[in-house]
Amino acid sequence: MAHLRFSALNLVQSRNKMEVEAPSKKISEYFGEMAYTKAQMQATLSPDVFRKVAYAIDNRKKIDIGTADAVASAVKNWALERGVTHYTHWFQPLTGATAEKHDSFFDPDKGIENLKGEALVQQEPDASSFPNGGIRSTFEARGYTAWDPSSPIFIYSKTLCVPTIFVAYTGEALDYKAPLLKALEAVDKAAVKVCKLFDRNVSKVNASLGWEQEYFVVDEALYNARPDLVMSGRTVYGHNSARGQQLDDHYFGAIPTRIYDYMKDFEIEAHKLGIPLMTRHNEVAPGQYEVAPMFGPVNTATDQNQLLKDVMDRVAKVHKLRVLFHEKPFAALNGSGKHNNWSLVTNTGVNLYQPSSSARENLQFLTFFVTTIKAVHKYADMLRASIASAGNDFRLGANEAPPAIISVFIGSTLTKILDKLEKSGDIDIEKGENLYMKLGIDQIPEIILDNTDRNRTSPFAFTGNKFEFRAVGSDANVSDPMMVLNLIVAEQLTDFYNKVSKLINEGEEKRIAIIKVLRQYITESGSIRFEGDGYSEEWVVEAEKRGLSNVKDTPRALDFSVSEEALGLYDKHKVMSKVGAVARHEIKLENYIMKVQIESRLMADLGLNMIIPTAIKYQSKLIENAKGLKDLGIDATEIKTTIEKISTHINNVRRLSYEMIEERKRVNKIEDTREMAIEYCDNVKGKYFDELRYAVDKLEFLVDDEDWPLPKYREMLFIR
Ligand code: ADP
Ligand code: MG
Question: How far does residue 277's CA lie from ligand 2's centre (Å)?
């Protein structure tokens, strides 16, 4: 029987261009037509109800049942007009995917379509089958989903989706979103207090997020012929393609036709849903691309990222493609990340990370800038934990992505300014406004011109008017890194405010008090600032000298998500309880174990019943050939050498596979989840994956191309 690989390759040859039609020429004509946005609310609700809902959204207040009834009725009619028959509470359980359970609007008793406020506000999905890290069994808690009115309701595949948070009756968050919302509230409160030192008019601060989603695309037929891609999202085996990314010709190159059609198609769907996609381009590796929206409130941007991944997945299938969000689908090529561009914006419209031409405003800018650096310095380990996953382990520290060491890049201009501020000695109050000039604060707008010193190797970089958290994995739900970032900045801003207030109470002038605390922060956080090459070996050595953590694997990095420090912060800012945090930790470890276990099984399966039989078949051909040559008296030394090499690799695949299976059996008996995860990391993955892969990839190189069962890198990566 011919291999699936060859029929797949034939299918790829026959793929045609797919014409994609937008609903109309201008995006503005269909943008958001499937989202029940504030504008839609205003158009469909009475002014009184609208005012109440808008107030609740802006101030994170509860919506009373009467208002909820009015919204439910209006949104149901809005949905019915668009051919929708069902609704669902849409939420983000800790599995990483989004979850939904559909209910019909149809009320058989009354014979009409109905949606009550109650059903909009709260529902009880069966929580038992979602991971809850023991919360449920400990407390026998049932869970419920509760409407989050700050994220727009939307229509997706003919279903009305109501964004919700998912909590247990004991109050523990069973999802990603609930703690994020709490952290956003914390940073709002803390930032408003600090803003009031500069401007009394500030009453609200919103955190903004613009993510850049990287992904790979492969043809559906080739994907289906790779059990590893289907089951683990990455290729566990595969020899390098002769041409990889060394020509640097893919990045910002012309987008291949089939991919372009695919992009256009998912962009249309996303735009209808109100996801403001702006940019698309090729990424560094062949087969790799990026999409990014216009930034928006963290909460909505997070939902939109989760939703977009789903849209991209579904639309890819229509195009006979598969989208890969795994952080490292292909060895020896760049992995995929998701840069999180983040800033804080006031209700008066000021981006607090925007340097200004006014010296006075720059003191406010520096306050937020320096406080954020100090927060990252103090809580670097929590940030590291927030991006830990089995997939991201392949990327962090692999000399292509930000390292597992958290550091902050700020560029040369701001470095000079902070140095000056730190070393400026006693401040001369008499000089009034000249103080700013003396401190170099009046010169900050220059950095707007300073686009030259961008540093792609930094995990946390300041890029002009925002920070960019770059170490986030492409497959991650950004809720966790965003929860931690906003939480630690909230904590640091609180600390800043308290220190400044204390100085003022002691009689210090406000300006001077602020500068004093900033100088202290700059000195204390110096070790987190790094402007050099984050991929270099020297940095690893230097970082160690500075006392920065470099935790390369998930099971160990996750310790920081339940450290005393972390638990203290969650509690202080009401983000989650200790029980909730410990449960999450458990879920993440379990998830890690399952991922490594699946890959390990795959490697043994494919190795023993696909790779070895294939290699033996080819080896037998060579043996026949060697015998024939010998009969004719021709020298067969070369062939013998190849046969020996193949034998060695076959033996290694067999030996390593069986050893690994035994090791797994041992590790599976370990009771403690953390310990089991560490063993999976060190003694299953660490001991066997690379060596097994080495043997299999050598065989791929040696064995007759006609016999090889798995689509090769060169076949998967270069879509026309
Ligand atoms: P890059 O050069 O890194 O690709 P872009 O300017 O294209 O940067 O922006 C990347 C992302 O950052 C986009 O989603 C964009 O909307 C977002 N972004 C821009 N300014 C801000 C800001 N002030 N706060 C948060 N995100 C922002
Ligand atoms: Mg970027």
Answer: 15
